Amino acid sequence: VQLQAFGGGLVHPGGFLSLPCAISGLALEKNSIGWFRQAPGKQRERVSCTSSDDGSAYYADSVKGRFAISRDNAKNTVYLQMSSLKPEDPAVYYCAADLVCVLGVMGQGSDYWGQGTQVTVSS
User: Fold this and answer.
1) How far apart are CA 33 and CA 28, in angstroms?
2) Interatomic CA distance for residues 66 and 7, integer angstroms
3) Using CA atoms, how far apart are residues 51 and 83, in angstroms rounded to an integer?
């Protein structure tokens, strides 16, 4: 199983980024996929996940209304669209597969992680 997150970069506050996570080695339609982020000196935190169990999505309170997760099963890719980016959003963003994501709950752990992509928000 391989996951590759990309699309990070430098944006101004209020800007937009879309992070694709390309996945190989598993059937996306049968797996829940999540995004996490970790800023320097901080613990890794859950951002969002898309469930293969019940079709639901989870969003951390800090990103609700600004971030949107979607999946394209045909392309085996999950996207995290981030809008209205804030100074507190910069971090390395990681995608992960085969995690708990159901009924609005997102697990912390996963056996499969991508390498991460850096998001920087600065004026």
Assistant:
1) 8
2) 17
3) 22
Distance of CA 43 to the CA centre of its chain: 16
List the one residue out of 109, 116, 50 whose CA is nearest residue 77: 50
Give the position of tokens 């969002």. 48
**CB-based contacts of 30: which residues, under 8 Å, 6+ apart?**
52
pLDDT tens for residues 80-97?
A: 999 999 999 999 999 999
- How far apart CA 116 and CA 123 sit, in angstroms, is 23
Q: What is the mean pLDDT of residues 40-52?
A: 96
Length of the chain: 123
**CA 94 – CA 115 distance, rounded (Å):** 7
